[in-house]
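Recap from last week: sequence in, structure out.
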Amino acid sequence: MNTLPDDFDVRYTWREGSVPPPYYYEYRIHLAAPGSAEVTLIPDYPAAGVPQWREIFSVTPSQLETLYRHLLTLGLLSTPWQAAAHPPVGGSSESLTIQAQRRKIEIPFFAAAMQDIRVNETVTAIRALVPQTLWDTLEMRLKLHRQNNSSK
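Predicted structure tokens:
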């Protein structure tokens, strides 16, 4: 099945490692058929009163089909995923959940070594779908947030 399924949905999350405020942040990218997409940045540890900056953008059916074929080619939808035997301590973490063909695939935060390469390639492709102007806007807002909260 090489055509984009109607239930295609990709959720990627990146979290900063354990660092003191205001240096922690996390972001999420959500892609869904037929082309709705959003990136959300949380500029601090999630809590009441912490903003969530949500930017909506669009992806074309062609871009989603390319990403889907990429997932198929790398075997991300058919691999029995294994967590790394000894995941690193500290540092940033990621999660990736893919819904396709009526199946939900959850890729572990730290996949086994040989599987990790395929995940990294996929994450690069997902991040590239977010327009650079949105990344720039979010980065500027994060910088301002840090400046305004560095004395707290």
